[in-house]
Every structure is written in structure tokens, then in C-alpha cells.
Amino acid sequence: MFANQRLGASADQDSARAHLLLNFTDLSNFDDRPIPMMVRGDGCEVIDASGRRYLDGLSGLFCTNLGHAHGAEVGAAAQQQLSEMVYSPNWSLTHPTAVHLAERLTTAAEPLGMTRLFLTSGGGEAVEAAWKLVRQWHIANGQPQRRKAIARDLAYHGTSLGALSFTGLDDCREPFLPLPIPVSFVSNTNAYRHPDGANEAAFTKSLLDEIHRTIIREGADEIAMLIAEPVQNSGGAFTPPAGYWSGLRELCDRYGILLVADETISAFGRVGEWFGSMRFAARPDLITFAKGATAGHAPLGGVLMNDRVAEPFATGAVTYMHGLTFSGHPLSTAIALKVMDIYDREQVFENVRALEGYFENRLQELRANPLVGDIRGAGFFWAIELVKDRETREMFDEAEANWLLRDELSGHMDELGLLCRLDDRGEPVIQLSPPLVSGAKEIDRMVSIIGEATDRAYKSWAKDRARLIKSAGRRPKINVA
Ligand SMILES: Cc1ncc(COP(=O)(O)O)c(C=O)c1O
């Protein structure tokens, strides 16, 4: 079986090189080696064209919350929907699975006061849809001058031009400047690198003071929206300190700003609850979500909003001037409903809550390696920051980080069979976000592979660091999603 796939794979390799453009990928990385090609999933593993198995330590791209075990059941729901009706827009009319999903999600988000849903095909689209709701809401409330936003350093909120405006990553923004929405960036919740990070109360105060100063500087009545993730992914699983989200709520209320929680990753059990906002006592006005909504079985995203935001749209005072052909595609909404059933039936979020402590304790064992500086995260969403010197928290410079992630760890992870993200958008981190159905066995295997890979990297580093960095070349970013 795999022999055939291998033959197929070499033709596919030529074809991929000739015709495919990959997301955020330097294709010259693959001049002298194959493009990794995944052909099958099995539980918490994926299998490449040569038959090698990898543990899916990043749930694809924070998507496969159920792993690869429920495709047939979800497929049956998809087949039923397609045999009944292949497509209906959600423009001036709707269809049952969109309605049922709206009911289901507003019920799940009831404790957060969410009462209405707009559907998109993904996370960036949801962020842009939220921005347009926010803008029109302010216009309806007689404040059309509110055109600015506040977002956080290093945060990733998508790549379409509107969503990119909120993304605090210079490399992503640079080619497309100027971006359409004026955004001020404030510190994220990286306690490890913040001067007040060791004292939680002082840290929270310092972060909120900075936001307050930013609001005053930019003009309190010019700011429309503040957007933040409950746990920020980019930079490495930054959890909020106590009091942070209630402080955001208080500032937004005081200055008439709408608060958006971007839960593209943190919703649907990633941190053990339906929404990360529940875990971290956030009370946003709008919630954007995607990925886990279908556990990766189909593209879907959306924006949930509370009554206050929905009011002018629901009463007909304002028509929402936004639409997407595939907003709430029946295939995706039918799949999302089936995935919600499975989340409930298999007690998937309970599994995350039950194993979070075990996961964290096992990760802490990695501190035996001197390269490991910080371990942070929540639920099944963790990052390990790598440092040159643990005592001083000295950071790797760019060439060193490149060597460490691309030339060392990427190859070791590949050889040892773990798909994870080796990210250097902030300081170098290993990011883990496994399927929410993972058990102790998968956690043990992840920790053991990372332990072995970081030990090998440390040995190379300790042995000949000058030579290694000098000879650091560009290698495939197989594990860099
Ligand atoms: C927090 C956050 N917002 C938005 C996005 C963009 O989502 P999409 O790629 O579906 O547009 C992502 C993608 O990873 C994300 O993590």
C-alpha cells in the first residue's frame, strides 16, 4: 500500500514543485529535499507519503481537536446534508443547520452573554467581520469618528488586509503597508519577559496602565475596538495574569470601546472550556472563533456578539453591510453540529481538564535541559521558550535561533516523529497544541521526543557553538507551521 503511495508521492512531488504555492513557505527550502506530504490520519497521528508516522502535536494547525478518528461519522453527517441540499446562502434567507448551530453556540456562550451569531469561513474573516460590526455599531450610536483599534504585540489575527491591520508581526505587515485600519499595539501578557512579570498584581497593573495611556494618547473617543486572545498564540501561549480581562472590560466600558476576544484557537476546548473567555473571566462584547468549530473537518468561523452589539442590527435600525458567499455553508454548519455532538458525547473538554495538570507536570521535567527557559500555557495549549542562559534569560540572536530551530530541532523532531511548531516570531519557542482527545500516552510520547530533541540540540550547542552558528544554513521548516 505504501509502496504505491511512494510512487504516487514522487509524481506528486514534481507536481507540487511545479504548481503549488504554499502558505508562508520559502519554497527554496525544498530544492534538495521533498516537500513533506501528509496522506493519512490515524487517531492522534498523521502519516506521510513514505509511511512514516508523526504525532500530531499541533492538531494540524490548532484544528484537529478530535484527532483523525471521527472522519467517517462526520462524513456521514456531511453526506446527509449534501444529499438533502448542497448549498444555500445566508443572504435574506437561511437553512436549518445554520439556525441550529446559532442556537447551539449561543447556548454554549450564554454565560458570556452572547446571543447572536454571524458565520464566516475562517478566523481572519471572523476578525474582519467583527471589525465591520464594531464600526457600524459606533456609527449607529452616533460615533462615526471611532476608527482606531488597539491590539497586542506579536499577536496574529489573520492575513487579509483588514485582519492584518490587527496582526502585530512586522514581517507579515511590511509588504502591505499602509494597512487600512489604524491600530496601536500594546504589550502582550508575556510575564517571562516583562519587568513586572514576577509579581502578578504589579504585572496586571502595568499592562492595564499601558493600555490606559494608549487610549488617552490616541483619543478616547476615536477608538472603536480592543482585540486580544484569551491565550495569545504567537510568541508562545501567553496566559493572562489575574485581573487582566476584568481590567480590559473596565477600561472599555469607561471609554466606550468594544472588546473583542479572538478565540480562533482558544475556543472549543483548547483550554478546557467552550470558550477561553470562560476560563479567564473575560467578558467580551464579541467573540471570534474558527478552527475547532469543525475540529478541522471543514472550513468555518464566526463572530458571536452580545445583545448590546446585536441590537441595532436585530431591530433593523442598521443593515450589516457585509457578506460572504460561503458564510454558513450548509456542509460546514452540518459538520460543526456533528462535531459539537462528539465533543459532548466523548467528554472531550473534560479530558483536557483532567489531563492539564499531568501535561504541565510532564512538561516541567524538560527543565532538566539548560536550554529550557520558560514553560507556559493552559489546557492543551503550551509553549516552551528556549534560552541561551537560564539564569540571565539571555536570548538567542537571530542566527542562533535560526540554527537552533531550523538546523537542529526541526530535523530531530522530524526524525523522532513529532509535528509541532518551532516558532521564532518572538523568542524561540516549541509550541504544542495536541488533539484534545490525546491521553497520557500521547503526552508522554510528546515529552519524551522533545526531551530527546532538546538534549541533542544542547549537546551540539555545548560542543561547538561558534562553528555551528557559522555554518547554519537554510533548511526546511518542516515543523514550522
Ligand atoms: C488568533 C487567530 N486569529 C485569526 C487567525 C486567522 O485565521 P484564518 O487563518 O482562519 O484566517 C488565526 C490563525 O491561526 C489565529 O490564530
Small molecules bound: pyridoxal-5'-phosphate
Structural classification: alpha/beta
C-alpha end-to-end distance: 28 Å
DSSP helical segment count: 15
Could you tell me the CATH topology label of the largest domain. Answer: Aspartate Aminotransferase, domain 2
Order of helices and strands: HEEEHHHEHEHHEHEHEHEEHHHEEHEEEH
Report the top-level CATH class of the largest domain.
Alpha Beta
Largest sheet: 7 strands, mixed
Instruction: State the low-pLDDT regions, or none.
Output: 1-8, 474-481
The portion of residues forming beta strands comes to 15-25%
Essential attributes:
481 residues; alpha/beta; Aspartate Aminotransferase, domain 1; 15 helices; globular; disordered C terminus
Summarize the structure.
The protein has 481 residues and is α/β, with parallel strands linked by helices.
Describe it for me?
The structure is a single chain. This protein folds into two domains: 2-66 and 347-470, Aspartate Aminotransferase, domain 1 (Alpha-Beta Complex), CATH 3.90.1150; 72-345, Type I PLP-dependent aspartate aminotransferase-like (Major domain) (Aspartate Aminotransferase, domain 2, 3-Layer(aba) Sandwich), CATH 3.40.640. Helix 4 (96-108) crosses helix 12 and helix 14 (398-416) crosses helix 15 (440-470). The strands form three sheets. Strands 4-10-9-8-7-5-6 form a seven-stranded mixed beta sheet, sandwiched between helices. It has a four-stranded mixed beta sheet with strand order 1-2-3-13. It starts with a helix and ends in an 11-residue tail after the last helix. The protein is built from 15 helices and 15 strands. The chain has 481 residues and is an alpha/beta fold. 42% of the residues lie in helices and 15% in strands. The structure holds pyridoxal-5'-phosphate.
